[in-house]
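ok, trying the design again with the full structure, not the truncated one.
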């Protein structure tokens, strides 16, 4: 039996395709995402025992050549014809059936989770039904198949609304045409759709390995949130390492009421917010004002590794929260010990501290109630909350170098401080007054 598959698509041109993803994605990113959809669908269609056609929106030869570069030359290409979507789909079927095919399915390009098994299931349904649909979760459909061109399937005045499939099925039933279904899938039309897709990626290996999965992970929006207070000695040098990140992510400084020259030393190109003093309060204020799907909380005395955004996105493909490893420039044995213990603590005890550069899924951050607005231990309590909710932590392969300014000079004083910090955390877990712990912390700084 001669079978055909039609991919019904726009040409992926910036500013023309996937425009509902803007402005969160740039026009070029929208086009790149569409190209990934096409490549993934191409792979799945080529696994099916059917001939393959691409029905596209433009007639210019250069655009057709562009599609051939993406999809391959060994396929049939023809332009869409008709004034509205239903008419264009109907004519696509007419053209393919005129070539002598006995069964044909047409698919859109907004469902990158489509697999060859879904397509073959659609052909199986056509053995007993006149028409087959693949439903989307928003009430539309991504696939329609039939054994002859049926105008009744394309008679709606408008498409793109939530009742498209329901109204189409009603029209077919009134004409005595039988209908069956293949697998229901998600389409990706909006930034929220893309966010949900990334969630599914964390539990589905095949999505991570797809063209769409790799690209979607690589463009996840990140907001860097930096709490500051009287940082004039470090703020200029700190900004130097942020220069290469400008334009690639959102960067927010949150000042807690600095009384030195910190604010006047911040480049006007950065966004500066203001809040009450306290890292918890400052970081929460930054998170509320941010736009990123990943929130990265960074201390002003930290030194970032190369390509930190790529490292964060790599970890967040599999996790909802994580951090970098920590290191110190000091060669002191006990600073090396502190590094080893801190990095091991993340893996063994599932606890990360703020100087390790905590990053977290935006929804998760607000879901767990943000950082507690307490004088100290806000990062420790945040980790304990994540641990209580069984959130698995990821860890970047590269390390953040952080200042050892809170450690005194000399080996024995360093050891005493490490012991006392451990004691303070134990006191916190045992329910000691946070004010008392805060006073003791100030005494040892």
């Amino acid at each position: 039996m001669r079978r055909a598959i039609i991919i019904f698509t726009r040409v992926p041109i910036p500013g023309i395709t996937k425009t509902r993803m803007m402005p969160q994605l740039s026009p070029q990113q929208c086009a790149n995402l569409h190209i990934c959809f096409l490549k993934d669908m191409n792979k799945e269609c080529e696994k099916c025992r059917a001939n393959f056609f691409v029905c596209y929106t433009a007639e210019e030869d250069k655009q057709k050549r562009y599609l051939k570069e993406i999809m391959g030359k060994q396929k049939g290409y023809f332009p869409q014809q008709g004034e509205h979507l239903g008419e264009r789909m109907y004519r696509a079927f007419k053209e393919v059936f005129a070539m002598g095919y006995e069964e044909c399915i047409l698919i859109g390009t907004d469902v990158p989770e489509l697999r060859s098994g879904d397509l073959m299931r659609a052909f199986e349904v056509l053995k007993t039904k006149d028409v087959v649909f693949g439903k989307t979760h928003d009430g539309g459909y991504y696939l329609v198949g039939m054994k002859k061109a049926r105008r009744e399937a394309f008679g709606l005045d408008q498409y793109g609304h939530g009742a498209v499939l329901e109204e189409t099925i009603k029209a077919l039933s009134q004409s005595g045409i039988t209908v069956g279904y293949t697998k229901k899938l998600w389409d990706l039309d909006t930034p929220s759709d893309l966010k949900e897709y990334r969630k599914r990626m964390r539990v589905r290996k095949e999505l991570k390995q797809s063209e769409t999965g790799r690209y979607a992970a690589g463009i996840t929006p990140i907001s860097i949130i930096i709490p500051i207070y009287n940082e004039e000695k470090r703020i200029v040098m700190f900004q130097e390492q942020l220069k290469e990140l400008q334009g690639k992510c959102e960067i927010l400084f949150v000042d807690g009421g600095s009384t030195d020259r910190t604010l006047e030393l911040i480049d006007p190109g950065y966004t500066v917010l203001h809040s009450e003093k306290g890292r918890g309060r400052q970081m929460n204020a930054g998170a509320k004002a941010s736009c990123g799907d990943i929130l990265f909380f960074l201390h002003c005395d930290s030194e970032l590794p190369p390509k930190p955004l790529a490292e964060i996105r790599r970890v967040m493909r599999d996790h909802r929260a994580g951090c970098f490893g920590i290191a110190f420039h000091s060669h002191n044995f006990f600073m090396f010990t502190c590094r080893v213990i801190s990095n091991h603590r993340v893996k063994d005890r599932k606890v990360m501290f703020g100087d390790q550069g905590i990053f977290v899924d935006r929804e998760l951050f607000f879901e767990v109630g943000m950082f507690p607005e307490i004088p100290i231990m806000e990062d420790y309590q945040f980790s304990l909350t994540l641990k209580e909710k069984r959130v698995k932590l990821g860890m970047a392969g590269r390390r953040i170098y952080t200042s050892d300014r809170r450690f005194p000079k000399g080996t024995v004083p360093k050891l005493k401080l490490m012991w006392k910090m451990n004691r303070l955390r134990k006191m916190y877990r045992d329910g000691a007054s946070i004010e008392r712990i805060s006073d003791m912390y100030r005494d040892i700084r």
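Keeping the full-length input from now on. The two ends are 80 Å apart (CA to CA).
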